[in-house]
Amino acid sequence: MTQAKSSRRNLLKGAAVAGAAMSAPMVAMAQTTTFRFQSTWPAKDIFHEYANDFAKKVNDMAGGRLKIEVLPSGAVVPAFQLLEAVNKGTLDGGHGVVAYHYGKNSALALWGSGPAFGMDPNMVLSWHYYGGGKAMLEEIYKSIGMDVVSFLYGPMPTQPLGWFKKPISNVAQMKGLKYRTVGLAVDVFTELGAAVNPLPGGEIVPALDRGLIDAAEFNNASSDRVLGFPDVAKNCMLQSFHQSGEQFEILFNKGKYDALPAELKSIVNYAVQAASADMSWKAIDRNSKDYIELKTKDKVNFYKTPDSILRAQLDAWDKVIEAKAKDNPFFPKVLASQKDYARRAGQWQNDYMVDFKMAWNRYFGAKKA
Fold first, then answer.
1. Burial letters for 68-107: b for 16+ Cβ neighbours within 10 Å, e otherwise?
2. pTM for the whole thing?
3. Rounded to the nearest 5°, which phi and psi values hold at 154?
4. CB atoms within 10 A of CB 48
5. Which of 16, 108, 186, 219 is the most core-located residue (most Cβ within 10 A)?
6. What's the chain's average pLDDT?
7. Which CATH number fits domain 31-156+245-285: 3.40.190.170, 3.40.50.2000, 3.90.1150.10, 3.30.70.100?
8. How far apart are CA 281 and CA 248, in angstroms?
């Protein structure tokens, strides 16, 4: 019995060694597929950091089989040319926002611009993945000849009205103001009387410094601070409906993406979801810290955008979407889908969610020491 057991152990050990020997060359022969990405953000911006965060998640999970290398805006193409570059294969992929492609089809700006019928950015992402938005985005890309694979992720906090040389208290002060924004917000602020210039992120602060524009919005406390806004303006107006539901976009050249094995495609998909959650948490931490730094170290004055201006934005938005819906068949289709989803999801959220300000004010409000 002992000799028989010993023989079986030796046999199993020999088989294991042989199996390892056979598999070793296979591991050694595994090749790395490298994708060259470009973000639409300067290297110092937290948005570029988000792009690197996504790439790291893919690279770590892929175990050397897939590697994404991320370059900053302008390394290969200007920010607003990212979609064409990914489509042509000049880049394998990229990191930006859908609203940057607004010039190719106005409906693309509905993934980010405007009040989204009262949906917050996470709800817009829910609509995209569970309410039909993803299929419509793919349809629009196909209609404009863009052979890409798009993943939306990363719900952005509500973006401020922006940075001003002088704070504004009423909508009349928007008239004639040279103002920077992008997407359908261009049309909204034009309707309010502003002279709009849709500059990419890296060009905003120099233009504000040289007086080429009077005011500008970008996105958040962390990005605004590192891009140098407090060096050229000391007044920031908080809260706005122009981009209150935006998210990021990760693009792949479709041919390059389709050539990946199923396992690596799954890694990309789940990396998007993981990066979306991680970005949300990081944004809360970093934006809140930088908001305090802007107040205390940079001596920025923050003002809540008056409700009269917010209501004027909604009035302008209604006029803009009515006009756009007449010119573009995709536009009313996307709007109707968003509205149906917002009616249901918004009612649930508004009815279920407690007013968190009540608790915050109790412990940290003005009357507290």
1. bebbbbbebbebbbbbbbbbeeebbbbbbbbbbbbebbbb
2. 0.88
3. 70, 75
4. 22
5. 108
6. 91
7. 3.40.190.170
8. 15
